[in-house]
């Protein structure tokens, strides 16, 4: 089904959040993007009969970003940044999109949110403790393992939370993994830049795809807000000048 075809026809009413905000969205586009919405709107339960779904446990801003993504085809960090002007809030919103996409069966959104998160972290520094907690809330599979690998690699080389009072904010499994890898190893000024991974490696490692499915270009789901670390292009000639990422 083409995008043009998906935006016509009957609409579904989605009531979201504690304030019961109502969204009217073409049924076709919801069913095409999400296994959850397809099952709910085409099944024999109440939602299928009324074409109305209540998501009172979902944040309205998260759902609003989802709807924008449905129509735009990618996540626009410039628009998200206008709502979440603080960097920590921006990061928390992106990880909320990961959880939403996983819960509602929206694999393409999961991939795009992952791309945006990794680009954001590359440009701003260490992931927040809450980000690591939320990654561990996702299903334990190869995709999550690759995310965890990138996060604990960053922590090994640049973090100091394992040695501080902030350790209690990190998942126990993450702490154990970092301690196992860092026993007797001093921090180094080396960093894994996700932007340097080839498109094929990036997609096979950090995206979830079925056979024959195309991968959305990384160039569409990029972070264009404030940058707080030197990027690969600025450190190619003299990597030793790269400053360590700030702890957040």
TrEMBL record:
InterPro entries: BTB/POZ_dom, SKP1/BTB/POZ_sf. It comes from the Eukaryota. Pfam families: BTB. Gene3D superfamilies: Potassium Channel Kv1.1, Chain A. Residues 10-79 form the BTB domain. SMART domains: BTB. PANTHER family: BTB DOMAIN-CONTAINING PROTEIN (PTHR47843:SF2), BTB DOMAIN-CONTAINING PROTEIN-RELATED (PTHR47843). This is BTB domain-containing protein. The lineage of its organism: Eukaryota, Fungi, Dikarya, Ascomycota, Pezizomycotina.
């Amino acid at each position: 089904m083409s995008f043009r075809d998906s935006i016509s026809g009957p609409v579904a009413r989605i009531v979201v959040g504690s304030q019961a905000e109502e969204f009217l969205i073409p049924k076709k586009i919801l069913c095409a993007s999400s296994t959850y919405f397809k099952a709910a709107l085409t099944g024999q339960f109440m939602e299928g009969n009324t074409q109305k779904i209540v998501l009172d446990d979902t944040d309205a801003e998260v759902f609003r970003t989802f709807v924008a993504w449905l129509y735009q085809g990618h996540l626009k960090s410039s628009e998200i940044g206008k709502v979440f002007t603080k960097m920590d809030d921006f990061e928390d919103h992106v990880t909320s999109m990961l959880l939403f996409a996983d819960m509602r069966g929206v694999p393409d959104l999961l991939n795009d949110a992952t791309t945006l998160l990794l680009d954001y972290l590359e440009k701003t520094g260490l992931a927040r403790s809450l980000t690591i907690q939320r990654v561990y809330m996702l299903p334990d599979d190869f995709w999550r393992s690759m995310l965890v690998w990138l996060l604990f690699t960053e922590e090994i080389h640049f973090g100091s939370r394992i040695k501080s009072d902030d350790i209690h904010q990190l998942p126990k499994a993450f702490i154990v993994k970092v301690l196992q890898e860092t026993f007797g190893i001093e921090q180094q000024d080396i960093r894994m830049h996700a932007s340097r991974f080839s498109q094929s490696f990036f997609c096979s490692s950090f995206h979830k795809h079925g056979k024959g499915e195309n991968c959305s270009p990384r160039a569409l789901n990029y972070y264009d807000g404030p940058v707080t670390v030197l990027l690969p292009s600025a450190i190619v000639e003299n990597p030793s000048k790269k400053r360590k990422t700030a702890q957040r």
